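#onboarding

Welcome to the new folks! Below is a worked example of what a typical request in this channel looks like: someone posts a single protein sequence, and someone else replies with the predicted structure as tokens. Don't worry about understanding the tokens yet, we'll cover that in week two.

Example request:
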Amino acid sequence: MAICTGCSLLCEDIELTVKDGDISHVRNLCRKGHGHYQALLTERARPMIDGKEVALDQAIAKAAEVLHSSKAPLLCGWSNATLEAQTAGMSIAKKLGASICDTSPPCLGALMERIISGRIPTCTLDDVRNFADVSVFWGSDPSNSHPRHLSRFSYYPRGEKRQKSYEEERTCIAVDVRKSATATLCSNYYFRMQPGGDGEFIESILATLDGRIPKFGDKKRMIELGTILRKAEYGVIFPGIGMLYSLQNRLELFETLLAKLNEIATFKVVPMVERFNSRGFYQLLHAPGNSLAAAAKGCDAALVVGSDPLAELPLATARALARVPLIVIDPHRSLTVDAASVVIPSAISGMEAGGTALRTDGVKISFEPIIESDLPSDEQILAKILEAI
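Example response:
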């Protein structure tokens, strides 16, 4: 058995056969996991300094030199790195007085802070499989972001208390601005809202729970939703980036909804983070990270670990990063790797390197390498950089 680090579910039931140092047969991978495993064969990064290939140790030494001479370094990425690598990165940040952050939007950090501190009640995915009778996917589409979520945990599996599963004992609700693949699956309980309308949607739910007529949306449908939520024995809400972007600085409204629901039934929240160890970074940091947009504008060098910010971030932030010397630690080529001053190739966590990570629900998962590699892990590279600076 192996563990797939293709997303934050960290599926532990991957069956594979390794022959002559290569993976020859794999079972239980979703399409996203299949793509992740195929990445072993796709464009791998090479050690580079200013566009010229060098020895790996030279690239590591140059990275340490750039960071040591920097007055305002930024360390970013981390969601696709193990807990051990994240810990090493935080040690480097402390030694240099550097800013450290991941590339997720600030609204996700605000939600994670509330969950980790206990302000928002949470549970494990195993609790979802065993006890949940109502699952609400709000601004999230697990059919595409976490393809095995519905089959392993939230809708189709037979759980300890939910032996009849989706046929009789589970209700799947989708709240979204568009009819996603998950919303199509839950077509009887798909609730569409206008972009940015999550706050009004919450107010309508609160009204129905209080026995009042909602002001927003289809009143009959909102009353139907309120009835389902009120009758739930164990409900779980899975908020995604769509909902969080909409609420922005109004997450207190979501907290109010959860408090109201928990007066009537039991409701938990499990975040829908995508990268395999986003949860680990927030848990280790114990606080919201630095604002990446602000840090990018003020930095004079940046170390990027397991991320492609130039392809993923807003244009202004990407441009700010592109103007400074970039050091990238990554197994593969990417836009950021191609623009970097220093490139350090690393082993792929979960396949060529072992370590630990926190699943999206906070459960710690440990994994071992499944094939041998000459490349060092992120943790080993960062340890060498820390020693050199």
